[in-house]
Design a protein that fits this description.
Elements: E1 12-13, H1 36-42, E2 53-57, E3 64-69, E4 76-81, E5 88-92, H2 94-101, H3 109-117, E6 123-125, E7 131-136, E8 139-144, E9 150-152, E10 161-165, E11 171-176, E12 179-184, E13 190-192, E14 200-202, H4 207-212, E15 219-221, E16 227-234, E17 240-244, E18 253-257, E19 267-274, E20 279-281, E21 290-297, E22 302-309, E23 314-321, E24 327-334, E25 346-347, E26 353-358, E27 365-370, E28 382-386, E29 394-401, E30 406-411, E31 420-425, E32 432-433, E33 440-444, E34 451-458, E35 461-469, E36 483-489, E37 502-507, E38 513-519, E39 532-538, H5 556-563, E40 567-571, H6 581-584, H7 601-617, E41 621-631, H8 633-644, E42 650-654, H9 665-672, H10 679-685, H11 687-690, E43 697-703, H12 712-724, E44 729-733, H13 743-760
Parallel strand pairs: 1-44, 39-40, 39-41, 41-42, 42-43, 43-44
Antiparallel strand pairs: 2-3, 3-4, 4-5, 6-7, 7-8, 8-9, 10-11, 11-12, 12-13, 14-16, 15-16, 16-19, 17-18, 19-20, 21-22, 22-23, 23-24, 25-26, 26-27, 27-28, 29-30, 30-31, 31-32, 33-34, 34-35, 35-36, 37-38, 38-40
Helix pairs in contact: 1-13
Amino acid sequence: MRSLFGVVAVLLSLATATFSQPAAFAPADGKKQLTIDDIFISREPAGNDSAPQFVEWSPDGRRLSLVRANSTDGRDELYSLDPATGHGSVLIGAGLLASLMAPSAKLSEREHENRARYGVAAYLWAPDSRGLLFDASGQLRFYDLETGKATDLTGPASPVSDPKFSPDGRYISFLRDHDLVLRRLASGQETKLTNSSPSVWNGEADWVYQEELDVRSNYFWAPDASHIAYLQMDESAVPEYPIVDWLSRDAGIDRQRYPKAGETNPGVRIGVVDLAGHSNWLSFTAETDIYIPRFGWLSPRIVWALVLNRAQNRQSLYFIDIESGNSRLILDETEDTYIETNDLVRFFEGSGRFLWPSWRDGHMHLYLYEYDGGNPLSSAARLLRQVTRGDWEVLDLCALDENAGTVYFTANKDDWRQSNLYRANLDGTGLRRLTPENGVHQPKMPRHAEYFFDGFSALTTPPRMQLCVANRTAGMAEAPGAVCSEIWRSKGLEDYDALTPQFVDFKAEDGSLLHGVVLLPKTGPMAASGKFPLILNVYGGPHEQMVRDAWRTISLLDQVMAQRGFAILKVDNRGSGNRGKKFAAASRENPSRQNFGAFGAVELKDQLAALDQALAKYPQLDRKRIGCWGWSFGGTLAAYTLTHSTLFKAAVAVAPVTDWRLYDSIYTERYMGMPRQNPEGYRSSSILQSAPELRGRLLIAQGTSDDNVHVQNSLQLADALISAGKPFDLELYPGKTHAIEGVAARSDLYHRIVEHFERWLAPPAR
């Protein structure tokens, strides 16, 4: 997705407003007290100012490259590590790297945020590992490692996106103005391969596909570099939403194509184009109102495509022959709830087998299928076996070693809150954990899977990066895990008087285990008679996990608030992700909704159950001073608490969806169906409908250029609260998007959150 001003008080707060720092109390042991200014000005506590970035493996697996600050003047350089020897060297020095990565065109704030949100790579390795392609905010430059020559490929023209090398390294492809463009690397000759219009995009993913289907690219090279398969998106019937630039003199309007729940989605079809620009369209399904979340090449003449129906409960795999035009349905799977799109489908090279992810046994696991490799369209796929099984979830597929018959993946097998790297044989045996430390690991592996890069942290262990050997004793289940050497380590909060969080578990009404984490203050100005106010920090929405065994589970803002004397509690309610199908689909338990869900009721029920148990467990918590805050879905749930419970005295809702008819089609319909199918679910989930029941003081904060949760959500809630005579507060951040990025804006927001709770949860006057 992922205060306003009521009748009594109205205050419009701009991001340029300033605050005085609240009075400090004396920290222990001479350590510093953490402040909001520390977070955004010194940036020391975050530890991210010196963390290596843009970590990539070269295609030959012989180099791990990363951008790091040098020890001389702190400027970035491109560094390389040899995993076999551990030897490191500078690939590109600071001065040259700065010129290669310097953008020559200015992107809008929305474009910058989207690049960060969707993980756009700063550089790509050439297929032969002898060169690098730098993407400087849409300006492409190629650097030849052997000659030391840098070439500007796109110049000052309009920015490009999604650059790729052809498999043979002779061409670079990219998107410009919604079209596919090909550039011959040797000669610099460009060829425009497609012809778009303002409402027809070739090879480019629109906002809703990127955000809700995790699509990161909509075109792919054939293995022999002869063709490109691409998705065409026809946006002509998709409604537009106006995003207004209120800071310009003329208040310019950017019209975003944004299908809301029940509205028309973009039309999609797959095309194949050769290097001369000759295209043809692939026909393989009679359905029209569909999604194509993933596709690619099975061989130089066969394209595979996943088709998801509009209800998102049926997923179909097709093979299509680009020469004959023939196609075949290879695999079809239907869920009784919904299907979450992921990147766990993996095809073997030339062996007629593939890995298929499924929730069919109640958890996300991998299944091995086979088809006729000599004639892929001759028959449907046949299930060979289930590769992984158990009361846990496969999270990510990291590598597939076909020769050894093993697959590497991350999973939460040992703890729902963790993510560890595992290896299993494709026959379902030999499951072995490779990462020794408990916590959250984010491995990145080259194709041969002998080594891996690991980003690691735990709840009380600051982030670190390490280079690991994965295969020292391959195939031996009793062998030790990976052997790692450290690349970088964060200081964490060692210089600050930080509090130590602790995990705590609760029970939902159906007996489900609810994981939580609590941060208890020692003292602070908000304490009164040994009692502390409690802030419930929520997310609670589908697919996501808030409580993980990771360093960022407790944020720097949490630490600041705890030093002021607020206790912090975070709980993952039913409906959250990575806990299996039953846990995720809890909102569909009401049979009167005909298998359609509703947001709010189950989530709040679990949060209240956890609160009751926390108050009983920790007598220092003050039941009469409880607040709630969250962002995006968490903002929705925070506002929902004030209209559906009497327990909370104050809440902060940042970028909340206030009526699910205002949110996008793919996300909302996946869980709630269309509005016409589930009118009661939409009504009961709407905060606009429950606005007259508001209790406690609500602060709403949102960026006016939010292209995810549009600002109309906050404005419509303002109107409903004004009509109901309910006082509330609003903070608008002009030009800011969903993340409200920028030092001034984010600092201002954090100050206002703290101030809001200090005002409304203050100790009782003596």
